[in-house]
């Protein structure tokens, strides 16, 4: 409601400032300065031209709100502002930068009606979303501290441990421990063991019958 009220105020102000002033003679190359008439509109028609309005104008509150909506979307607002900077009087042809201070109206509207109020609208929507989420979780009647504690517990549950890589020193030690151990054979020791077995004679194998 606040957003619509502010836009309505700017719409009424735009009708007072720019109502009936966005007209121009078509074609624009037509020279009607010597044609009979009390103003440029009559001279344009007398010279065979057409006195037409701009696609976006502020002649009434409905057209004004439509033009402000286009400005609020930040799409095509520059052309509307430039037309407003060229206006002179009702039934008079526009002149380039004849009313360049009219650009302040559009700059103020975009700052207040577009950025600030849209941000306010998003904040209200986000606040209602948080309230609805609290009601779904069953914590709508709790205090802020209790809600913060519950949200903290939920965040702790969602947190998963993260595996950190081992430092290079520990990684090298682990790789050394996993390597198979080598057995070193001593040729002299093997020969002495063989001679002892030959001196003792053949080995006797005992079989036990169960």
Automatic annotation (TrEMBL):
UniProt keyword annotations, A-Z: Membrane, Signal, Transmembrane, Transmembrane helix
Major subcellular location class: membrane
Pfam family for this entry, one: Ion_trans
Signal sequence extent: 1-19
GO cellular component: voltage-gated sodium channel complex
Entry's transmembrane regions: 61-82, 103-126
UniProt membrane topology term: Multi-pass membrane protein
Signal listed as a keyword: yes
Ranges where the Ion transport domain occurs: 1-134
Localization (cell): Membrane
Superkingdom of origin organism: Eukaryota
GO terms assigned for molecular function: voltage-gated sodium channel activity
Name assigned to this protein: Ion transport domain-containing protein
